């Protein structure tokens, strides 16, 4: 074999060996979209499905093709973030259609953006890296306040896309600080399909992962529509709404707002009805550091409700939350000590928890028992 042919064969063999460990992006995406979660060569389960462009391999392929007079097509060029040019062009085209005067084009574009941002992380990234992308997405539903002219399917797709975008950590601050976002999420909490309302709550929960966003959302008075939706009690929305309220109330300012907006009354009633007790008790435990929350609980019969949960529940976490709230009530409202003493005399509920509860529950229960005993001793002395 002539030397040039041998060199060509050897270089081609090297080329084949180098690229055997990598795959074309288009084919990987096709493999994953088909529902596969294993390596197509080894059949091992993939630890994740995030695609990383192999720039080194691309350079080697390009150099080999150049040396051997082969033209390498560049129709699917990938930028530094791993986003294909074709994806970017399609994304920009869809955004333009959402601003179209044709309703059918707006709906079709919003529907496709919803699907793409759900399935492809790269499209979530594009929203954060493309100027005015979020305002363009929201334009079809950001008109006048007249809900009669609102197309519910279009609103649902846009709000759900906004939720999908917010999942990407780098987008959270940008999304929340876009002026029309929080008002439109608040509007969506009150109007539209139940899926729209639930997804609006989920978006607020996702955005509230940042403390600065908690403050923005609270100042915008978004807790009130969340509490109103919680009070409605629709099964599809309850968990998302409860998660959003809990996350927002981690900061003190929002606890104050939630209590003022009637959260305690709504939550205690739902707990009494046996609805989402785990999540709602966690919120109530957060709010109980506010003195007015204690007052509200006393007025609505919260002490009796909490004691019955401790007595009847099998969930250690719920018992912990209940006894923690009751201990705070002991500090702020001495009038409720009588109810606790009657419960103790009748069922020994708190004593039982002090003996058999978790370590945290034991500490709280013991502290209440000590306080009850001090009150009894003082009464006898007097």
Automatic annotation (TrEMBL):
InterPro entries: ARM-like, ARM-type_fold, Ubox_domain, Znf_RING/FYVE/PHD
UniProt enzyme class: transferase
SUPFAM superfamilies: ARM repeat (SSF48371), RING/U-box (SSF57850)
Residues spanning the membrane: none
Signal peptide: 1-21
GO aspect biological process, one term: protein ubiquitination
Entry EC no(s): 2.3.2.27
Residues of the U-box domain: 22-71
Keyword Thylakoid: no
Designated name of the protein: RING-type E3 ubiquitin transferase
Organism listed in the record: Senna tora
